[in-house]
Amino acid sequence: MAVERHKNLLDAEQAVLLVIDVQERFASHIVDFEKMVANIGILVDAAALLSVPVVVTEQYRKGLGETVALIKSKLQSDVGNFEKTCFSATGSPEVASHLAHLGRNQVIVCGIETHVCVNQTVHDLLRLGYQVHLVTDALSSRSSENKLVGLAKMYAAGALPTSVECCLFEMLVESGTERFKAVQKLVK
Q1: Which of 55, 65, 159, 183 could form a disulfide with 24 if both were Cys (CB 3.0 to 4.6 A apart)?
Q2: Of residues 7, 11, 21, 167, which has the active-site annotation?
Q3: Is residue 96 part of a domain?
Q4: Active site residue 84
């Protein structure tokens, strides 16, 4: 019989990874963009290994381009990929419906910008009853100050802080398994 875990720990069977607006035209404007993209790449690879669904949003694709190539190349064919024009991802009925259809209650959030699209999405996810985990080393904004403000506001609303390694090892639960070995290689 499995030991019951704390409700704030991620569960691979209840989690979905939401990648918000990591698009080409943001590259030169976002603090530590390359590091953020690399960390999101790790999350996407691990999601595939752990059978965690991935949802990707793109803000105004015509003006801001598609998801950056490094992330796009890692996405499985069953990824939900949605264009949006409202800042909150759940402002798009297609995104909200897709998340509901997945039937999971934990959303791992990464992407940009922390104080705009991520912030508004997280507040709406919390309103809809999801538990939200903010991957702080996979989030960014055009300034560090705006990232900090966005994080503070989301924490105050009930979102939980995490990091790439923290969320992956929570979902793994234990070492010594083949899944552990595969994920461990991603975080070297």
Answers
A1: 65
A2: 21
A3: yes
A4: yes
